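ERR on first pass: missing label on line 2. Operator R.T. fixed the label and resubmitted. Corrected input:
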Amino acid sequence: MNASERHALPPRSAELLADPVAGAADRSAVEAPAPASAQRRAAATPDAMARLAASMVPPPPPAWRRALARISRLWLLAAFLVVWECVSIFGQRINPQLDVMLPPPTAVISAAADLMRRGVLFTHIFDSLYRVLLAVGTATVLGVPLGLAMGWSSRFRAVVDPLLEFVRPIPPLAWIPLSILWFGIGDVQIVYIIFLAAFFPVVLNSLAGARDVDTYLVRAGLSLGARPRELFVTVVLPAALPHIFTGMRVGLGIGWMALVAGELVAAPSGLGYMINNARTLFRSDYILLGMVLIGVLGLVLDYLMRQAARFAMPWHRGQ
Amino acid sequence: MIQVDVANVSKVHVSMKGEPLLALLDVNFQVEKNEFFSIVGPSGCGKTTLLNLLAGFEQPTRGELKVGGEVITAPGWERAVVFQEYALFPWYTVVQNVRYGLKRKRVPEAEQRRLVDHYIGLVGLHGFESRYPRELSGGMRQRVSIARALAVNPSILLMDEPFASLDIQTREYMQDELLKIWQRERKSVIFVTHSIDEAIKLSDRIAIMGPRPGRIEEIKTVEFERPRDPTNPAVVRLAAEVKLWLRQQVFETPPANPARAEPQAAH
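pass 2 clean. output:
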């Protein structure tokens, strides 16, 4: 039972907290309570209770030790990098080809510094990010209302579903040749490919979100006088929000993959283009740099997406 | 003055397999203004269906349900519902939940604030205004739900086993609170429960329902003054009588020795 309910009850908490044995014992025992009941009295207020609870368990380790423990969990990653470095440096003495086949991590870092100095690295990163964000943004703006409408109205869904299910199984990459004919090589064509990749996860998750709305919440809204539009904004949309964010995360992940594939095939710039260009120049350090950047940026985008979801759904935190 | 009039109501549900199922058959009763009216019966007797019809969530197959002389066709705030599982909006805080119906009613802003504050106080939740429902205990959630329903000033409060998922201490405490609120706010309450003791503690009249097909078997008037002492012999006798009677009606196998059944039923 919580604090307020206890306050509302008759003031008998003192008796309940007191040691039941004390009443049965002789008078001196009542006047000088046993250590157990003294301890219970020490927990009379929430603050005191928290202090008492803290005194009964070992103190938490200091911040620096927790940080150290966290870092020490990265040992396998560190070992992997060290082994990689050793293999490519010592391997080159045995087989000089390894210089191109497998550059060491340090070479990847100096490649990054090199490209940054020449000012092209951020152009590639910016172009790729711009394309993926524009495409996923468009997929969200179009896909969320479509999915919600399909989830809300089964009649609408029955009409739209066949068309959607006809287009959905076609891999986005299969659209590349046709889209080059339509849009030429450039931003529009790549954005179109990423959009196709991200659109369906967004639609299907929004649909699931709108269908899974608790009947009781809809009924509660109706019985409190909500009109259809109000019901949609105050009940269906917030109830579907976790699904919508899942759809956007999945869409972003798949869109990011489609971006790289699209840029590898045909693009004037971007990280995929950078990798493909490096291949023709035998610059495997640039290739590896591009791969690492794509992985790291994907991770960062996903992290930002989760933070946005946390911010947008304060009631959902910690679940 | 008659406020709720249920006349010859039958309801057929169609099962998943497409078979029609008689959920309610020829239900008739009236509820007076400011009356506390309970509907008891075993699970599957159609009491929740009846409440859904009163709320306007479903439409009757035959017959008519009227409130204040008007036929019920859709849900509306004049028949606010309190659900067993609270049905609080998880994305709204306590204040926002209680204010929900007032906003839909387009009550002026200042009046909204005043009413929200009043009803949160009435259910004893001052200090919890900015909490989300999942940060509250079951009893507190149900109190928010009651405050939310009362805030729109309904003429009838429909309650569907509101205390069934609370522990027994909280449940008894909530029953007392509900009675206090009902005596202060003067509203008709239609209260669905499977607990005969709960119905006797709270109600002016009790409709007893039987299953297959769902129907009202009898309507009993509870004459005792409130607060009712559950250990009062007369109350015990009434509870035992209703339980025994219900057992005979529903299971159609009366105990061989009624004298043995009575103290058992009094628990």
